[in-house]
Amino acid sequence: MDAVLERSPDLGDDLELKDATADHASAKPTREEAEEAVRTLLRWAGENPEREGLLETPKRVTKAYLEFFKGYSQNPHEILSKTFEEVEGYNDMVVVKDIPFESHCEHHMVPIIGKAHVAYMPNGRVVGLSKLARTVDLFAKRLQVQEKMTAQIADAIEQELQAEGVAVVIDAAHHCMTMRGVHKHDTTTVTHSFRGCFNESKFEKRFWRAVQG
Ligand SMILES: Nc1nc2c(ncn2[C@@H]2O[C@H](COP(=O)(O)OP(=O)(O)OP(=O)(O)O)[C@@H](O)[C@H]2O)c(=O)[nH]1
Ligand SMILES: [Zn+2]
Predict the structure, then answer these.
(1) What is the CATH number of domain 88-212?
(2) Domain 3-68 is of which CATH architecture?
(3) What pLDDT digit, counting tens, does each position of 197-207 carry?
(4) For the complex shown, is ipTM > 0.90?
(5) Model's pTM, two decimal places?
(6) Does the beta carbon of 145 lie inside 6 Å of ligand 1?
(7) Residue 176, annotated as binding a ligand
(8) Is 197 labeled as catalytic in the residue annotation?
(9) Where are the domains positioned within the chain?
(10) Where on the phi/psi map is residue 161: left (φ > 0), alpha (ψ -120 to 50), or beta?
(11) Whose CA is nearest to atom 9 of ligand 1?
(12) Residue in 109, 142, 176 to alter for ligand 1 test, most ligand atoms within 8 A of Cβ
């Protein structure tokens, strides 16, 4: 099987090993094929896709998927490239906390619901605050593993803003652990990605103070 090194569209200069035969664009099914797959899953669940209440369900599900997974068609550069420097010399950390997000776990395709705290140390320029929340959403709206999502957000902000440091903490509930499997309710998972100055304890402490209020 041929394998090629390609530039990852979302991580700038990071190189990823990809299977040359796994061309995502050409592998993408038509809407009709996706709707047929939903009918198959309905039959798998024990349902009759032809009954009245389910007739429009395949259309609704494929429409919902466009929303759940819209992050595949987005690029962090588009979100984070607009910066500004007129901030009266402000050169301290910026912390945006409690950013809610909805994602889906790549193992079971069920929701991951949580919040992210994102901080960066500007390098002369700042970015619009909403863009940090949009960056969280971009990666959330893909199939995810929480550790990967945490690292992807940190990578994107570090690379696009050339920040002196980045901190990303995610606290999330995995519904594959609540509504199936081990059935552990009220359990959340916390992941961290600290880059640059946030690896120094004084900055890390200030970050946690800001997050914990
Ligand atoms: N590290 C990590 N694990 C995750 C994440 N989301 C789901 N998982 C875990 O992925 C694992 C998949 O395990 P498997 O044994 O392959 O699948 P499974 O039989 O459905 O596992 P159970 O959930 O234990 O029933 C499970 O332990 C999930 O809890 C995540 O974001 N990060
Ligand atoms: Zn899962």
Answers:
(1) 3.30.1130.10
(2) Orthogonal Bundle (1.10)
(3) 999 999 999 99
(4) yes
(5) 0.88
(6) yes
(7) yes
(8) no
(9) 3-68, 88-212
(10) alpha
(11) 107
(12) 176
